[in-house]
Amino acid sequence: MKLKYTLSVFVLIAFFFTGYSQPQAVTFNYTGSVQTWTVPPCVFTINVIVAGAKGGGANGGSGARISAPLNVTPGQILNIYVGGMGTQGNASGGWNGGGTGFASNNGNVAYSSWGGGGASDIRIGGVALANRVIVGGGGGGRSGGSSPVCGGASNCNNGAAGCNTYGQGGQGGTQVAGGAGGTPWAGTPPGGSPGTLGNGGQAGLWQTASGGGGGGGYYGGGGGGNDGCCTGANGGGGGGAGSSLVPAGGTCLAANNTNHGYVTINFQAGGINVTATNGGPYCAGNTITLSATAGATTYSWTGPNGFTSNLQNPTIPNATPLDSGTYTLNYTTPNCNGTATTLVVVNTPINPIFSAIPSICNNGAVPGLPAGSNNNPSITGTWSPQVISSAIVGTQTYVFTPSPNFCANPANLNVTILPNEVPTFNQIMPLCINDNPPALPNPSTNPTAYTGTWSPPNVVTNAAGIFTYNFTPTAGQCAVPTTMDITVLNYTNPTFQQIGPLCQFTTGVNLPLSSTNVVPINGTWSPPNINTQVPSTNVYNFTPAPFQCAATGTMTITINPLIIPQFTQLPLVCQGDVPPTFPLVSNNNPGIVGTWNPPTIDGLTPDTVTYFFTPGPNQCADSVTMDVTVVPAMPPAFVADTLSGCNPLMVNFSTVPIPNANYSWVWNGNQIGIGSQIDYMFTSAGCHDITLNYELFGCLETTTYASYICMENYPNTTFTANPNVLSSTSETINFTNTTMGGVSYVWDYGDSQTSTVFEEEHFYNGITENILVSLTATTLLGCATTYEVSLPVISDPIYYVPNSFTPDEDEHNQLWYPVFTTGFDPYNFNLSVYNRWGEVIWESNDASKGWDGSYGTDGRMVQAGMYTWIIRYSNKETDEKKVITGFVNVLR
Predict the structure, then answer these.
(1) b/e burial code for range 356-395 (CB count within 10 A of at least 16 → b)
(2) Rounded to whole angstroms, how far apart are CA atoms 377 and 350?
């Protein structure tokens, strides 16, 4: 079924091919934008003419004209770029690659330079410069200044250079690079810019004599160089021309075009007219019909959603929006193959939109259902039911069915029929006779407020009784008439049960909120609460609440002073002692009788407990409290930093202190310190009992640690040696241990040998010096002392005295001196040398100092010969004096 759908934009694209076979030509002139041309069916070769635009100015360079055949494909799209001529001033480059000139800045327009002409080209497969298949180069622009010169002409391959003046002309583009920019006169920057692929370089800028812009081309020409000298004089160089791109088989006319560029396409066309169409637009669910005109020998359709068919006129049932798009028909004819397309539109059904109909009163007047929807364009159709009924309260649904020519869904419209409500109002409370009458309420308090009129229209209070007022709703509201009864009352005096007298600080007594009348009267008091804090007599005033028609009232209340019970504070209780009992009568006169809570003291649990006294009734006395403390019976624990050691022994005792507690420390029946921490020096060996006494608020506790501190006396370490001297270098000594109080021993025999035996003999070998022997004795608690004995070595001295030497100032045997190895006292030593006349020629008290053969204060050397020496020394151990003599021979 074919539908007319007025809400969609329908685009129908078809290609028509008619039978013909004759030459045709299409010319594209300059427009300043890209133009396209689609290759017709059965056309595979075209001949094109591409002419570049002339450079700006009277003597701007002419553009090149290129002719060439091109191979194409039917349906192929060619992008046509037609170059524009250069203009004068800023932004003056011709469209499609012309380089710009520049305007003069002194107001003389004639001095402004001209832009280069744009190239003309054809691009296949895209619009990038790389897609160009043929290019006609544009000419260079005329220079500026008082002496303008020509721009270069575009030739067949390479563009010509611009003319030179003070500024150099730009160079022409080549087949591989843009033309170089012209250099400025006198080297003053900036000079012309070089051309690039497709674009001419911009002119060199100067105040009044800029260069000309380079022409566009396959490669653009360079911009002309500027005049770098003077204002308003001379001129810049002309712009170079762009190069051309000549395809194989093409020809070129250099410097041929003197206007805007152009492109001409010549082709031979022929074929049969075949058209592709469809019956759309369609609504989803319809059947798509595709149609092709007769004349083709075969038909082949392809389309969206994977569609293919070889029928001339195929169909697609149950269409969806996925079937929308371009369908392509490929066909064959006796002359050639061809292609046609048609655009199919499948619309999604839209939802009709209607304005809501306001609620209608039950059995009220009804509006008509809308003839069309709010959509644009409006959707028409039919309703079921056809008219609105207000006979039944509730929500009624009316179904809209769109007309067949709309691609739209059915829609529902709900209409609410409201019940006729009874208006409700806030009730006017009973009024007192002759009160100011309130206004009758209007509108009502219903969720939908209703307005109307009252009869009578005003409240009257000049008489007591119950009066009825009638409310009539305004027409057009879903409401019915109603009434309100208003009561007008006479005045009544309130009565109350008398309060008090009360005790001071009494709580929980409140003024009554309503009177004791047969009909209670509610109201408020001033002051609102009874003040029992201060003994006094106060008047409280009662004000009735509105609408009770009651008079004011008063009540006088007396507050008697409150007596504070007085008790003697109970003493501290030591934990475990029998606690005292609480007195049941206070010390006041007269005494106040009451009870305690808790009633008795718990003397077994250390704590401070608050006990509460509650007076008996009718005594106007206050409650009081008494705190009773049970002091904990806590035997103190303590520690010492040292439990054992040697006599004397310093010990630190400490316990964790309890606030307010007193501590005393006892040893051997004597107090040795007070406080939670003490230091004490013990001077008696043995194990000692330590006692700590603890007193807290009169409660005493004691802790004794038996044999807590143990200490020993240091041992009396002694020994004897037999013999007690070493008379030779190798000898055995017997050592006897005479120590008292030691249990372990360490001997150090002075020759790097040690032992832990009680006593033994020890063999010494190779001893030449005195030996210090020590014995260390240690008790069980580690108390140790050391005793030392020195064993002297008693032996004859061992010495050697040379009998000659050679003090001849060579490196050998220059000094003479005796060598003692042991047995002499170096501090009791004297060496004298005598000549043959018995004179002392050299003397020394240092056994390590040698004689060099000199004598006298001036150090003269003695003659060679024999000299007598005498050595006087003492034995190291016995101090025995010794004298030895001999001769020494001085050799030269």
Answers:
(1) ebeebbeeeebeebbeebeeeeebbbebeeeebebeeeee
(2) 12
Q: Which domains does the chain have, with CATH numbers?
A: 20-270 (no CATH), 272-347 (2.60.40.10), 360-418 (no CATH), 431-489 (no CATH), 502-560 (no CATH), 573-631 (no CATH), 639-712 (2.60.40.10), 719-791 (2.60.40.10), 798-890 (2.60.40)
Instruction: Go through the chain and tell me how many residues it has.
Output: 892
C-beta of residue 141 within 8 angstroms of C-beta of residue 98: yes
Burial call 734-745: b when 16+ CB within 10 Å, e when fewer: ebebebebbeeb
Q: CA nearest 3: which of 266, 401, 437, 345?
A: 345
Token readout for 338 is 């061809």
What is the radius of gyration, based on Cα positions, of the chain?
A: 69
Q: Are 172 and 240 in contact (CB under 8 A)?
A: yes
Residue 791, pLDDT score = 87
Q: Are 92 and 56 in contact (CB under 8 A)?
A: yes
| Tokens linked to 109 | 């327009």
| DSSP letter (8 states) at residue 492 | B
Question: What's the mean pLDDT in 727-742?
Answer: 88
The mean pLDDT of the chain is 88
In this structure, are residues 881 and 874 in contact, taking their beta carbons and an 8 Å threshold?
Answer: yes
Sign of CA dihedral 445, 448, 449, 451: negative
Residue 605 DSSP class: S
Tell whether the torsion through CA atoms of 807, 813, 814 and 818 is positive or negative. negative
Q: How far apart are CA 104 and CA 90, in angstroms?
A: 9
The Cα-based distances of 649 to 309, 678, 715 in angstroms read 121, 14, 15
DSSP labels, 550-568: B--EEEEEEEEPPBPP--P
Give the neighbor-by-neighbor strand order of the sheet with 276-278: 276-278, 288-292, 315-316
* pLDDT confidence tier of residue 211, bands split at 50, 70 and 90: confident
Q: Residues with Cβ < 8 Å from 562, sequence gap 6 or more?
A: 503, 504, 505, 535, 620, 621, 622
**Calpha distance 871→882 (Å, rounded):** 8
Residue found under tokens 């053969």? 853
Could you write out the DSSP letters of every residue in 19-58?
Answer: --EEEEEEEEE--SS-EEEEPPTT--EEEEEEEPPPPSST
**0.70 cut: is pTM over it?**
no
Strand partners of residue 467: 486
CA distance 235 to 57: 14
Tell me the DSSP string of 767-801.
Answer: --S-EEEEEEEE-TT--EEEEEEEE-B----EEE-
What does the alpha-carbon distance between residue 32 and residue 50 come to, in Å, rounded to a whole number? Answer: 16
Judge whether residue 547 has pLDDT over 80.
no
In this prediction, residue 7 has a pLDDT band, given cuts at 50, 70 and 90, of very low
Going by C-alpha positions, the residue among 105, 86, 300, 123 that lies closest to residue 213 is 86
Q: Count the Cβ atoms, other than its own, within 10 Å of residue 840.
A: 11
The vertex-96 CA angle with 95 and 101, nearest 5°, equals: 55
pLDDT at 22: 62
Residue among 180, 234, 178 nearest 206 (CA): 234
